[in-house]
What we know:
- The chain is α+β, with helices and mostly antiparallel strands.
- The chain has a single domain (2-112), classed as Glutaredoxin.
- The chain has 8 helices and 4 strands; from the N terminus they run βαβααααααββα.
- Strands 2-1-3-4 form a 4-stranded mixed beta sheet.
- Helix 3 packs across helix 7 (75-84).
Amino acid sequence: MKLYGIPNCNTVKKARTWLEAHGVTYEFHDFKKQGVTTAMLSGWLKQVGWQKLLKKTGPTWGQLPDAVKIAIKDDASALALMLEKPNVIKRPVLEHNGRVLATGFNEKDYENMKP
């Protein structure tokens, strides 16, 4: 399993704590240090769509000009924004063998996931 996010995000911390408490082995990918790629994001967008992958809460989204927010209408426009500002990616993203198992953290979803 691979968990993508930023280490100081509270939701990422909750997911990491849950995975560790349940003995789930995972590799952590730090968006800030290791970055994101077009291929990575395109794969996720194909699986979950931009509406589920774009984080519209938090300071990064809130500080964007309204014109930028309004312009996000599809995978392509969301991809461009996520490449420029990875903090607008909903985190964490939990992936196994290239398949997105979860975006964000919900304990019930994690309990029901099947890698």
